[in-house]
Amino acid sequence: MSLSPRDPLVLARVVGDVVDPFMRLISLTVNYGQRQVTNGLDLRTSQVLNKPTVEIGGDDLRNLYTLVRLSPDVPSPSNPHLREYLHWLVTDIPATTGTAFGNELVHYENPCPNSGIHRVALMLSRQLRRQTVYAPEWRQRFNTRAFAENNNLGLPVAAVFFNCQRDNGCGGRRT
Amino acid sequence: MLSSAKHKINYSAFSIPSSTSSSLSHSLSQTKNMTQVTMEEVWKEINLASLHQHRRLNIDHEPVLSNQNPNNSIFQDFLNKPLNQEPPPSSSSTHHGSLLAPPATVISFNPHSIDTHFDESAMFGCFGKKRGQDSDESRGDKRHKRMTKNRESAARSRARKQERAYINELELEIVHLKKENARLKRQEEQMQLKMAEATQHQTKKILQRSWTSPF
Q1: Residue B169 in 3-state DSSP?
Q2: Can you list the alpha helix ranges (DSSP code H) found in B31-133?
Q3: Of A13, A20, A6, whose CA–CA distance to A118 is shortest?
Q4: What are the mean pLDDT values of chain A's consecutive 10-residue runs (175 residues total)?
Q5: Which of A7, A40, A78 sits opposite B160 (nearest CB)?
Q6: Chain B residues touching A117 at Cβ < 8 A
Q7: Sign of CA dihedral A94, A97, A98, A104
Q8: How far is CA B120 from the centre of its chain?
Q9: C-beta separation of B9 from B39 below 8 A
Q10: Which of residues 44-73 of A touch B (CB under 8 A)?
Q11: In this structure, what are the phi and psi dihedrals at residue B125, rounded to the nearest 5 degrees?
Q12: Using CA atoms, how far apart are residues A174 and A40, in angstroms rounded to an integer?
């Protein structure tokens, strides 16, 4: 199903800043502990320190997927000149399984911010074949569109994002 | 650009000779009463005519003078341009500063301040009178930066609010749909039971008359 213009991914400009409009083709479930990530969920640094459990849908174990976790608001949302920052890259994930079955090319890092509320997006794309995805040399200035093009990933098939801020932040509100 | 600006001037009530900056400044005082649009074009023309070495700065403030944009976006675009660029060489950095300060007056369409600027326009590449005070520039500069950053973060938090609202709506709808689904399923079960009863009933009574007409 294609994205409605009021879909949180569109409202948050994840579609736009990071990727082009795509269609959700398979399910993507991301859980940090007990908490399932829904679009726009507000999380704190302490809650996302460790890898989440990720489960993907689909029906054919032979289809392999790549999961990318990145943040476009680096170093701060008002001045994102290091856009984007790659937190995690897992490839060769078979459909219906999770990231535990994939190949972690870029290990999980959680550089949650000091200032501002950052969007963190997790995106799933379908690979053509096994081991066709190459990790970039560095994490910052990651460009999702270029990465997808260089690795023949095309548009994502699923995505979810959440808002991350530091632990003693005020949720973006002044008291 | 030059030709279009001249074109606009020619349409005015005053007959204005073309090209030289002195005649233009004279005509400009006459056109003080004309529409702001015309004045902006003329102002643009002066800058373009008098400086080629400051071409980059001209490009910077062209969006300010464009006619189509409303005040807010001109201001923002204009301020965002120098902010996003790499720090320019020192000679043009002061120009940047003076670029930022005078637009506040120009955009408010005050013909008098523009008029005074025109007199000195021939000497400077810049937009407006060169204010020697760095502190003035940087104070205004900082204030403007702060304002745009604030505006952007307000826009972002409004977007976040909308996202939350949408998710809440979806959740409510899910609850509602689940209830209705359960209700409909119950209804279907009951109907099926009745159907089953009815068919059983019918098989029992197969040899009996189901309707008796009243006598």
Answers
A1: helix
A2: 36-50, 55-65, 71-84, 90-100, 103-107, 111-121
A3: A13
A4: 78 87 90 88 88 89 91 83 89 90 89 80 88 83 89 90 83 60
A5: A40
A6: 156-157, 160
A7: negative
A8: 32
A9: no
A10: none
A11: -80, -20
A12: 20
